[in-house]
């Protein structure tokens, strides 16, 4: 009788094991909220998420909100890829797949006359420094962790 009771306890413990790691990860979640005025603002996401896309990070913003991601090529900065949010369909166009990852940045247009809030949540990111920045080229970067940024903790010192 004791043997079968012990076997059931282990089965029950093993059944809950897949839930333990995700719950432990939740304990490390942190976040912040940005209050953005009308017009263009620089934004950054300093957290690790399973899906850091526009659709996931900014699922419901005012209709007409735009996000501009800088594009780069062999000769450096080439312009911006522009995405806009349609409030009627509650979707990003041309799609919501653009990613905002730690260390990167984008420009967000708040189309309203008032302020809007944007919140970012996730697990803290472990910075990788020095940042890979092409010499002599315009690059939009951000601090890879949620704290006050300095040259040293955004760009790093070349080794």
- Biggest sheet, spatial arrangement of strands: 2-7-4-5-6
Q: How much of the sequence is in beta strands? A: 25-35%
Number of strands: 8
Q: How far apart lie the N and C ends?
A: 65 Å
In which range does the helix fraction lie? 10-25%
The count of helical stretches stands at: 3
Can you describe what's shown?
With 159 residues, this protein is an alpha+beta fold. It has one domain (31-154). The chain contains three helices and eight strands; from the N terminus they run αβββαβββββα. It has a five-stranded antiparallel beta sheet with strand order 2-7-4-5-6, with no helix packed on it. It has a three-stranded antiparallel beta sheet with strand order 1-8-3, with no helix packed on it. Strand 5 (76-86) and strand 6 (91-93) form a beta hairpin. The longest helix has 25 residues, at 2-26. The N and C termini lie far apart (65 Å).
Give structural attributes.
single chain; alpha+beta; 5-stranded antiparallel beta sheet; 3-stranded antiparallel beta sheet; 8 strands; globular
Record the SSE blueprint.
Elements: H1 2-26, E1 30-36, E2 39-43, E3 47-48, H2 54-57, E4 66-73, E5 76-86, E6 91-93, E7 106-110, E8 116-124, H3 151-154
Antiparallel strand pairs: 1-8, 2-7, 3-8, 4-5, 4-7, 5-6
Please give a quick description of this structure.
This protein is an alpha+beta fold. Helix content is 21%, strand content 31%.
């Amino acid at each position: 009788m004791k043997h079968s009771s012990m076997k059931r306890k282990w089965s029950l413990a093993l059944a809950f094991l897949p839930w333990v790691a995700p719950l432990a990860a939740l304990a490390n979640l942190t976040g912040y909220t940005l209050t953005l005025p009308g017009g263009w603002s620089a934004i950054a996401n300093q957290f690790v998420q399973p899906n850091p896309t526009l659709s996931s990070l900014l699922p419901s913003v005012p209709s007409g909100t735009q996000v501009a991601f800088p594009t780069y090529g062999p000769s450096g900065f080439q312009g911006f890829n522009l995405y806009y949010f349609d409030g009627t369909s509650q979707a990003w166009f041309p799609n919501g797949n653009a990613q905002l990852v730690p260390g990167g940045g984008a420009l967000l247009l708040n189309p309203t006359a008032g302020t809007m809030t944007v919140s970012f949540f996730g697990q803290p990111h472990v910075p990788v420094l020095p940042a890979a920045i092409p010499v002599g080229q315009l690059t939009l970067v951000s601090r890879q962790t949620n704290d006050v940024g300095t040259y040293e903790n955004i760009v790093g010192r070349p080794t």
